[in-house]
């Protein structure tokens, strides 16, 4: 998803700055992802990002990026290799755990949880809309959190997990 330009530094955290922020001390412009959505203290999610978003992700305090989107879903989508290179250049750890919506397996969930646990926190996750990252997060926590809490947390971030309730209640992977 394309970001917008803001001036730094500002009294507002990078995720809530707007074009109307005025700061006569600003020396550089930073492109911020338009949609950072926290899921817990370790992970936030977002729709598609681009390599140019990495400075803003760093400025927001993230230490890692995880991609849950396979390459080639749509024409013009940024390549994982380009996002990885930009993340690493910005000093971020990077992981790629691609999944296809509606086909998330127990192995996918286990790999996602293991990867998140190993990445330096906080982690910035993304896919096309942020939904797959949110699904993976909820399913990865289904054994240690109740389904209602996971569904409510996801709803606060703008994602509807009611269709996953039965799977969340069985404890997923």
TrEMBL record:
CDD domains: PTP-bact. Transmembrane segments: none annotated. Residues 1-33 are annotated as: Disordered. Residues 1-10 have a biased composition (Basic residues). Residues 18-33 have a biased composition (Basic and acidic residues). InterPro entries: BLH_phosphatase-like, Prot-tyrosine_phosphatase-like. It comes from the Bacteria. This is Protein tyrosine phosphatase family protein.
């Amino acid at each position: 998803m394309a970001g917008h330009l803001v001036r730094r530094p500002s009294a507002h955290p990078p995720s809530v700055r707007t074009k109307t922020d005025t700061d006569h001390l600003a020396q550089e412009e930073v492109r911020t992802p338009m949609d950072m959505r926290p899921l817990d203290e370790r992970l936030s999610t977002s729709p598609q990002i681009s390599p140019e978003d990495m400075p803003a992700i760093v400025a927001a305090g993230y230490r890692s990026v995880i991609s849950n989107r396979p390459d080639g879903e749509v024409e013009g989508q940024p390549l994982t290799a380009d996002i990885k290179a930009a993340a690493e250049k910005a000093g971020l750890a990077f992981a790629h755990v691609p999944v296809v919506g509606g086909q998330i397996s127990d192995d996918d969930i286990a790999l996602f949880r293991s990867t998140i646990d190993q990445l330096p926190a906080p982690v910035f996750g993304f896919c096309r809309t942020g939904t797959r990252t949110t699904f993976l997060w909820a399913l990865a926590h289904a054994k240690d959190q109740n389904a209602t809490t996971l569904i409510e947390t996801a709803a606060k971030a703008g994602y509807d997990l009611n269709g996953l309730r039965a799977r969340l209640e069985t404890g997923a992977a």
